[in-house]
Automatic annotation (TrEMBL):
<dbReference type="InterPro" id="IPR008995">
    <property type="entry name" value="Mo/tungstate-bd_C_term_dom"/>
</dbReference>
<dbReference type="GO" id="GO:0015408">
    <property type="term" value="F:ABC-type ferric iron transporter activity"/>
</dbReference>
<protein>
    <recommendedName>
        <fullName>ABC-type quaternary amine transporter</fullName>
        <ecNumber>7.6.2.9</ecNumber>
    </recommendedName>
</protein>
<dbReference type="InterPro" id="IPR027417">
    <property type="entry name" value="P-loop_NTPase"/>
</dbReference>
<dbReference type="InterPro" id="IPR015853">
    <property type="entry name" value="ABC_transpr_FbpC"/>
</dbReference>
<keyword id="KW-0813">Transport</keyword>
<dbReference type="Pfam" id="PF08402">
    <property type="entry name" value="TOBE_2"/>
</dbReference>
<dbReference type="GO" id="GO:0005524">
    <property type="term" value="F:ATP binding"/>
</dbReference>
<dbReference type="GO" id="GO:0015418">
    <property type="term" value="F:ABC-type quaternary ammonium compound transporting activity"/>
</dbReference>
<dbReference type="InterPro" id="IPR050093">
    <property type="entry name" value="ABC_SmlMolc_Importer"/>
</dbReference>
<dbReference type="InterPro" id="IPR003593">
    <property type="entry name" value="AAA+_ATPase"/>
</dbReference>
<dbReference type="InterPro" id="IPR013611">
    <property type="entry name" value="Transp-assoc_OB_typ2"/>
</dbReference>
<dbReference type="InterPro" id="IPR017871">
    <property type="entry name" value="ABC_transporter-like_CS"/>
</dbReference>
<keyword id="KW-1003">Cell membrane</keyword>
<dbReference type="InterPro" id="IPR003439">
    <property type="entry name" value="ABC_transporter-like_ATP-bd"/>
</dbReference>
<keyword id="KW-0472">Membrane</keyword>
<keyword id="KW-0410">Iron transport</keyword>
Amino acid sequence: MSPLQIRGVTKAFGAQPVLRGVDLEVPSGRLAAVLGPSGCGKTTLLRVVAGFERADAGSVVLAGREVTGPGTHVAPEKRRVAVVPQEGALFPHLTVAQNVAFGLRGGRGARRTSAARVTELLELVGLRGYEERMPAQLSGGQQQRVAVARALAPQPDVVLLDEPFSALDAALRASVRADVRAALHAAGATAVLVTHDQEEALSTADVVAVMRDGVVVQAGTPKEVYRFPRDVEVARFVGEAVVIPATVRDGVVWTPLGHLPLAQSAPDGVGRAVLRPEQVHLVPEGEGLSARVVDRYFYGHDASVALEVRCPGDVLLPVLCRTQGEMPEGDTVGVRIAGPVTWFPGAA
Ligand SMILES: Nc1ncnc2c1ncn2[C@@H]1O[C@H](COP(=O)(O)OP(=O)(O)OP(=O)(O)O)[C@@H](O)[C@H]1O
């Protein structure tokens, strides 16, 4: 049985419904990211699971025990859930070792509050040797790692992390993220990470739950939600998407860019196809369709160009494409589309 099962959870603040029937299961030892735009209810969901908020309806089952349900509300401290807040919230007057040892009190490891266990936990987060430092002597990333060690100390059933990397600067974020992920996996912890950063969700989590307007609209592996988004909005939210008008006839998608293979079977009809910028390949001018560079975006590790593709019938279609090299604006290039597209019925 999954250590965390959330079923049909609803929650309103006054007249404002915030959670509108959330379903989510997190398998044992997995890290799930709850990904969604600001205000969609991510933190509220975490607070319901932690027991800081009462749900109006639905249930939360932790390690087989219903902690939230009709007539049931187990107090937060009795839930065996650990919370890592946005900024680690370490006790400033306690050393790193004392902060971690604090997490051991009252937990399963209560009888083993030994220095050895603290060292073991610090080792897990890559901070062995930092026992005697004070929190103020640590970087923001190190503080977050201590907070994770403290959270793991009582061997909770589930670790909840609320935007734990958002206060870190970009250069640090990726490495702290990787360390925290490794520590959670090494501890075999089941965890839920709340984030509005799609790159963070896709690169860190085993399961991504995309949340919108108080419901989980899709949950799956990072590859599943990226390659097989449930709708155009999910496609746009989990990455850059090229959305084009498309008609399905006999299992083939007809688009202004030519006919393309389908990622999944679909009934005949009119709708939109979604492809990713990395499926748009540049070819020498004269091959494929002709396109003009209309804008460029430089990200450091790579770059994108906005193209205007001239399609049959003189239709001009805006398309985004990844590039490595220099591409002056106004340049004319050839493009070819590779790989399958996802398709959604409805008006273009
Ligand atoms: N205690 C509260 N009382 C009243 N309204 C609240 C309360 N907590 C949250 N809300 C409202 O519920 C909605 C969802 O908030 P929540 O913090 O869960 O969203 P979120 O997805 O975590 O957003 P963010 O990414 O910005 O933190 C917001 O409109 C917020 O104003």
